[in-house]
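Hi support team,

I'm opening this ticket because the web form for multi-chain structure prediction keeps timing out on my end. I have pasted the exact lines I submitted so you can reproduce it. The total is 753 residues across three entries, so I didn't expect it to be a heavy job. Is there a limit I'm missing, or should I split the entries? Thanks in advance, R.K.
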Amino acid sequence: MKRLMVTLLLTALAMAGCASSSDTLRLATTTSTYDSGLLDAILPVFEAKFGVNVEVVAVGTGQALSLGEAGDADVVLVHARAREDAFVAAGYAPARFDVMYNDFVIVGPEDDPVGIGDAADAVEAFRRIAAAQARFASRGDESGTNFKELSIWEAAGITPEGDWYDSIGQGMGSTLEFSQETGSYTLTDRGTFIAQQANLEGMAVLFGGDTIDANPDLRLLNPYGVMPVNGDNDDLAMDFVEWLTSVETQQAIADFRSPSGEPLFFPDSVEWRSGGG
Amino acid sequence: MSTYTLHGLRHAYGDRTVVDIPNLEITEGEVFGIVGPSGAGKSTLLRLLNFLEQSTAGAITFGGHAVPKEPPLEMRRRVTTVFQRPVLLNRSCRENLVFGLRLRDRDPDPGAVEEWIVRLGLEDLADAPARTLSGGEAQRVAIARALLVEPDALLLDEPTSNLDPHNVARIERLVSEVRSEQRTTVVLVTHNVHQARRLADRVGLMIGGRMVEVAPTEEFFESPKEEKTAAFLRGDLVY
Amino acid sequence: MCADMRGLVEAFTDALALLIAGDAALWEVVWLTLRVTGAALFIATLVGIPVGVTLGLSRRVPLRGLLIPLIYTGMGLPPVVVGLFVYLFLSREGPLGGLGWLFSPTGMIVAQTILALPLVVGLTMAAVESTDPALPLQLEALGATRRQVAATTLLEVRGGVSAAIVAAFGAIISEVGAVMLVGGNIAGETRVLTTAIVLETRKGNFALALALGVVLLLLAFAANFTFYRLEGRGRSA
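Hello R.K., no limit was hit. The queue was backed up. Here is the completed structure from your submission:
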């Protein structure tokens, strides 16, 4: 009797603790993807089609990849190319697939005290900010955005440190609020900035153009990749990747709009590029 | 010389008068016993005499000085009360003994303290936490604590009513001893008429806030003037 | 099992290595945590103990009936809500925006003081109320001034007051909501143990997160241990 109880207890724990049952798919992704509302818009289609439940864990890129490494997530959808490739190289996923892209912009006080608006590229804009020691807020959370920012500093040959540079270790939303409050510049994905712009009085896109097509710096493009994790749930994970990159879903991504009616993501899968797109 | 003189002293809670004493004098060095049924106002009178409450009306003089509304600290510190239930601090016996002196910023005379410890029979318990004491031991500490500050007036509010006969005898002996040594004026409230007879020089019967009769002990017990006193001493219900 | 144990063991080993190596960034975070929490606790104790003793001793404090439920509510204030209010007050557009305290250790101290104060007041008050109700009268009868009554009562309940301080310390050193919002988790400026743990976990740096967690637990343990010893000595004196 006692042994039965222990067995039952362990089974219950195992069931509660592990989500790798075949009717649930756990997707680890970044907060910026989740906060945009895109997943809420497209995931129900997948869930209906395959009769499964998708659990979304929205964390930083670093933790999303760690979840995949530990087998706690079945699929990883992030935007940090170098780390994605390393993830595949380490054997955690069979491959990485292009999904979509959007772009980064540099935002700050709308009067642009440093005058980065007419910079040739993002590197030049960052140089001007550093030269003027204007306040700059960094995500500092090893997110895809943070990696992009650091790569620009590197290209500019600058090690950002000092009183003017705040590494705040928080999500994009909090970083934008921080920037508004302190009058700082920051690098953000365009989608999150648009989504929050109503609350960010006094802030504007200072470098990166009004739309993605007007962005003068290709370096600021932000590609998203999806990776099915090698593990107990391979089949469903692969189904998800195929579905996400299919022309049909890619069209849905293209049609997705911010509440203010602007496109936030641009489809970019191989299927899309060779077929419908 | 009188320690206390009371004139038209009245104390009321709302419209219920609990103490109403037109005139009373308590002489220096005497033991004044107060007996009476519960609710007669005996404890309230003691609180007034210790300046712990302000009377509704009337005047008290203490040691020849009128007691003002807010008695000065020096005056307050010449009186102290030992209550029915000893309230000791969560410290050692010794610390409790000298606590009254500490409040007065006076350094205790170590010899005097040791003498008291011996006298109280607490040699083995002197450094024990006070909460380990029995009721009788605790009350002995409380009385010694009060006497160590050498008050002009020591007020005892039913000091032995929770104690066994052995401890009652011990404490009564203590009171009569110190009284002859220190010439402290003692006001003893007790429901035990025998105790009053054993210890007091004069006794007053208090009923319903009034002093029905005040007389030297012998006279009070042998030939009471008032019918109520006689009835009370017989053990009849009086009110 | 779904997650392998190796990850956990590895994280623990790495955490120990970090602690032993005395990582500079780690100690900077620890030091700031102690400064912020220490300052908040100091202010809360300085204000809270007299208020707690007064409320515990006197039944005639005006608005007592309103004050006490407020204090009890305050003892369970959600840190993130306190953080939100402090944020709004200290924000540039807020009434105290001119102070420039948002995203500074000072702002964090304000928030943590607000969290700690009701705990210190409430638990001190409860400790004082647990004393013999006849104690103040006996002390007065022995010739104590009002101040001496309060001081003696406070000494009587030193165990309870120590517990109040430890409880407040434990509550604020381990809270993340208020310091994250008000401090902003700026590296080297307002990053404390709890916000660093959140960040490092998000980054997937489990070893560092765990190392920080161990330090936090050790600090909480050290505080409890110290007060326990003090209390023990007080009792046997």
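A quick check on our side: The interface with chain C takes residues 14, 17-20, 59-60, 62-67, 70-72, 140-142, 166-170, 174, 178, 181-182, 232 of chain A (CB under 8 Å). Let us know if the file doesn't open in your viewer.
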